[in-house]
Design brief:
heterodimer; A: 336 residues; alpha/beta; Rossmann fold; 6-stranded parallel β-sheet; two-stranded antiparallel ribbon; 12 helices; 8 strands; 43% helix; B: 324 residues; 2 domains; 5-stranded mixed β-sheet; globular
């Protein structure tokens, strides 16, 4: 695999400059359109199974992952296309994986919820809620034991907070001073149940209870997400232990494609759409004179090309062979 | 010659592997002070910082082991009693078993989960369980269950060197009970079974404590003129199918022994394999001597004895089978 992590450039600045903001806008639009078109591919039967779209939450992936260095690791939940793209995974190979094709990142073995590319430190989408939190602590433990200066960004949803492993992992991360940023994308619902009906307190209160610095941030403001996550990453990198970021966000689509959305009103979705992260950043850049109509059109066109190319690439990729399905059950000497 | 116990054999394997490779470390409850069974005693002083006491969080112990193994370390997790591992089953089933597979070999997990299993110690329902059948059902996980100290030593070393997740089962009743002369070479290959005793009348398959009970039963039968082959399975997953089928074909009569409950136990897999691939060699129905289908190992001595297969029950079944 040859992908390279995005934004692998200079040391991060506390405030993103204009070029970086324009890049955030491009990335958010890319994820938005990738997801919208993926939804259409689902209705066409090109993408099958269980599909969880990320629209509305783009500022989380883009803002948080922009704070990372190439050596850092990302583990995330099953709504993982946005994080994969923000980390620099080739959209062609992401779409091919969603199609289940041979050129997908896992050759069709993983699918939507299990994207993986170790070459860019993207160690997976996980569909067992909160099960990847201890894994992140294990990566942090390895960083400490090997004296390597990488940070693990562990992304999960508010639904994870009810799981026992959430609490085990936070406790252990603090006890062992592991460089893990716990990044909670609080989109208000664990499937169809409001997090307020699932949790007796606030998310950040829990983190603070384990003596972990915790902050809640507007997850639909990419600059705010970037700013707070950067503090968290730098805290970890300085050897000060784990850090917790709660990003308040909202998903525009249902939990999955099968969700009739009986638990919320259309008005609520509209209310959050008015706070759309892409619209807000676009307006800010235009007001500041850093972007005009033609500039925006250029971004849109660039995005459309990447997304349409990914669909064409996925469509052209062959079905994966069946006769190799007994390969890699275990690692054998001589395996690549 | 000096005698070596199972515990000493395991400790020496850990010691040797930690000395040879500084990526090897031990993670578990109370491991720094030596653990409940004193297996890791003395290692913390010798390898500072490489025995890590975990809180009581079995699920996370295994989850963290996966994360650390993925990033180039060689963790050996200890789950204090096999009965406690269930909280971590999800990590074994949902992640450890399939990382290599889902990434087409890009990622692999050189990790070992050691845990004491089995009954006969008056441990009651939460300190006596057999757990092997849950894990032999997971392609991608290797399951090793030795019987003799030499094999514990050599197979634990092989498990630590293996690039795949290995569940290493240590029968707690045998920890100090079974001794062997020091220096015996053990089996070094995961996935190989051994014919421990050769006889022409019938074949017994067993592992762990039951292997020793089966050998004792074979002694009894030999005194009566019936000669048993006894196969020490050693590794349950991947199973040494060739040795199993050869040993079954050689006598035509098969007795499978384990202390795990009968239904869904690993003995069913042995029986099915032989029925599928060696049916025409059989001279009698395959017999199983296993724990009864009751929910848990009862506490009282007489009740526990009722639960546990032993040399007397094995000998009785073997006699019936020989006479068939």
């Amino acid at each position: 695999m040859t992908a390279t992590p995005r934004l692998a450039r200079k040391a991060r600045e506390a405030e993103p400059d204009i070029d970086q903001l324009l890049d955030f806008l491009y990335q958010m639009q890319l994820i938005r359109r990738f997801e919208e078109r993926t939804g259409e591919m689902y209705t066409k039967g090109k993408v099958r199974g269980f599909l969880h779209l990320y629209t509305g939450q783009e500022a989380c992936a883009v803002g948080a992952l922009a704070t990372l260095q190439p050596q850092d690791k990302v583990v995330t939940h099953y709504r993982d296309h946005g994080h994969a793209i923000a980390r620099g995974m080739d959209p062609n190979r992401v779409m091919a994986e969603l199609f289940g094709r041979q050129d997908g990142v896992s050759g069709g073995r993983g699918g939507s919820m299990h994207l993986y590319d170790a070459s860019i430190g993207f160690l997976g989408g996980y569909a067992i809620v909160a099960a990847h939190l201890p894994l992140a602590v294990g990566l942090g433990l390895a960083a400490n034991m090997k004296k390597e200066n990488f940070v693990t960004l562990c992304v999960f949803g508010d639904g994870s907070v009810g799981e026992g492993e959430f609490h085990e992992a936070l406790n252990l991360a603090v006890l062992w001073n592991t460089p893990v940023v716990f990044f909670c994308e609080n989109n208000l619902y664990g499937m169809g149940v409001s997090f307020q009906e699932s949790l007796s307190t606030q998310v950040t209160t829990l983190a603070a209870a384990y003596n972990m610095p915790a902050v809640s941030v507007d997850g639909m403001d990419v600059t705010a997400v970037y700013r707070e996550t950067l503090k968290a990453v730098e805290h970890c990198r300085a050897g000060k232990g784990p850090y917790f970021v709660e990003a308040m966000t909202y998903r525009y689509r249902g939990h999955s494609m099968a969700d009739p959305e009986l638990y919320r009103l259309k008005d609520e979705v509209e209310k959050y759409r008015k706070r759309d992260a892409i619209d807000r950043l676009k307006a800010r850049l235009m007001e500041g004179g850093h972007l005009d109509g033609a500039g925006w059109e250029a971004i849109v066109e660039r995005v459309e090309k990447v997304v349409e190319d990914s669909i064409a690439f996925a469509d052209a990729s062959p079905n994966p062979p069946i006769d190799t399905l007994f390969r890699y059950v275990t690692k054998e000497p001589g395996d690549a | 010659m000096a005698q070596v116990t199972v515990i000493e054999a395991i400790r020496s394997a850990l010691d040797e592997e930690m000395a040879a490779d500084d990526r090897v470390f031990i993670l578990g409850e109370d491991v720094e002070a030596g653990g409940v069974f004193r297996v890791t005693e003395g290692l913390a002083a010798k390898y500072p910082g490489r025995l890590i006491d975990s809180p009581l969080a079995e699920s996370s112990i295994i989850g963290i082991t996966i994360g650390a193994a993925h990033y180039g370390l060689r963790p050996v997790a200890e789950i204090q009693f096999a009965d406690f591992i269930h909280a971590g089953f999800d990590h074994m089933a949902s992640e450890a078993s399939r990382w290599c597979y889902r990434t087409k070999g890009d990622a692999f997990l050189p990790m070992v989960v050691r845990t004491p299993w089995g009954g006969g110690v008056h441990g009651g329902q939460h300190h006596s369980q057999s757990i092997e059948a849950y894990y032999t059902h997971l392609p991608g996980i290797k399951v090793v269950a030795p019987s003799f100290p030499s094999d514990y030593r050599s197979l634990l070393k092989a498990a630590i060197a293996d690039p795949n997740p290995v569940l290493f089962l240590e029968h707690k009743r045998t920890y100090r009970l079974i001794k062997q002369e020091a220096g015996e070479p053990g089996e070094t290959v995961i996935g190989r079974s051994r014919v421990t005793r050769k006889g022409s009348d019938l074949t017994i398959f067993a592992y762990g404590l039951m292997l020793h009970e089966s050998l004792a039963a074979a002694d009894e039968l030999a005194a009566e003129g019936t000669e048993c082959t006894v196969v020490d399975l050693l590794t349950l997953q991947p199973l040494d199918v060739e040795t199993v089928l050869e040993a079954a074909k050689a006598t035509g009569k098969v007795l499978v022994v384990h202390e795990d409950t009968l239904t869904g136990g690993f003995g069913g897999e042995i029986a099915a394999l032989i029925a599928e691939h060696a049916f025409e060699y059989l001279d009698a129905p395959i017999r199983r001597v296993c724990g009864p289908d009751i929910p848990a190992m009862p506490f009282h001595h007489n009740m526990e004895s009722f639960f546990m297969p032993d040399r007397t029950k094995i000998a009785a079944a073997a006699r019936d089978l020989a006479a068939y």
